[in-house]
Amino acid sequence: MDPLGGLTRGTFVFPPESGSAMLLTPTRLLFAVLFCLCLAPLFAQEVTDATRAKDARRVKALLRLENVDLETLPEAKASLLRHLATIHGSDEYIELVRRFQLKDAQPDLLRLVIEKGEETVGVEAMKTLLDFGATEAITKELGGKDDVRAIKLVAALGLLGDPRANPMLFAAIENSERSVPLRSAAVVAAGKSKAGQEQLLKLVEAGTLAKELNFPAANALLSSSDAAIKTAASKHLTLPATADSKPLPPVAELVKRSGNIAAGKQVFATVGTCIKCHKVRGDGKDVGPDLSEIGSKLSKEAFYVSILDPSAGISHNFETYTLLLADGTVQNGILVSQTDADIQIKTAEAIVKKFPLAEVSEYKKSTVSLMPADLQKALTAQNLVDVVEYLTTLKKPN
Known about the structure:
alpha+beta, 16 helices, disordered N terminus
């Protein structure tokens, strides 16, 4: 009986087996099709692997040549581009882009900086962009509306520590129309090089640095390895005092200290008042971001900045809005919703308030975080170190 339900046997001939022809029945046709479908990808993979191996050999040969003009070697150029696609985001990728001056790769290098700006490969991608004279492209990206992307570029410029970055960084620092988090990030970046510190100090001494940037500037200048810069800055800037009236050490010093996790958890829930606005695994109030997995997202340095200078690190969707009501009162809170009829905000006490738009004379996004900017007044430096140590343990479960 035909396993396919009595279909008429065909007259197709399968490739000879043991020297004789084989009649291809519908059943055998089915198996033949399945055989081809299963093995075709394997044969294609072999071709692909062979092509990759050939491309790699060509690239090695190109590297042995001096003054290569890829436009005169179209096949070699095609091999190089295919090879780059297989090693994207690696150190070798950056080396080859530099070696062959592939300036058409600038958009891809920018993406790599944004994706991996705090890793070696991202910083090297930024250096390659500067070497290619891509200042205009970087400036355009920094001037975009996406602060998250811009801040990542700024961080990479700071880690690079190249004086060529300073004009771009200070353009952001002195632009009052840009957000405080972006400008603060630019101050931090500029403060990573001596040339940047000197330029920052000039703004401080001239009294032209915006007050909201004093904290990152103080951290950068008061921890400078140049004694002259540190002394000059101390005449104008100070770090906030702690609960025991002792001046707070610079963030760079705090990062080096180790804290007590159990003590930090206690600080978080009591004197630090963190639990009044943040949830950790279900406990706490839902005002600011949930911190249950925050240890997987922020570095120790970022924790200190978020606590000591909250307006410099406002999370997306947690920006504070200021509402001026028709009766003259002012309300501040995180925007919950807005319709044609009303606007809702959540206060620092986790209370949601609704206001008819007809009663709101004006509302705008504030540059100041709803999170208190003087939490350190209730903490000692050790309290602060302990709570940061605790926060670093709040990670995604394996």
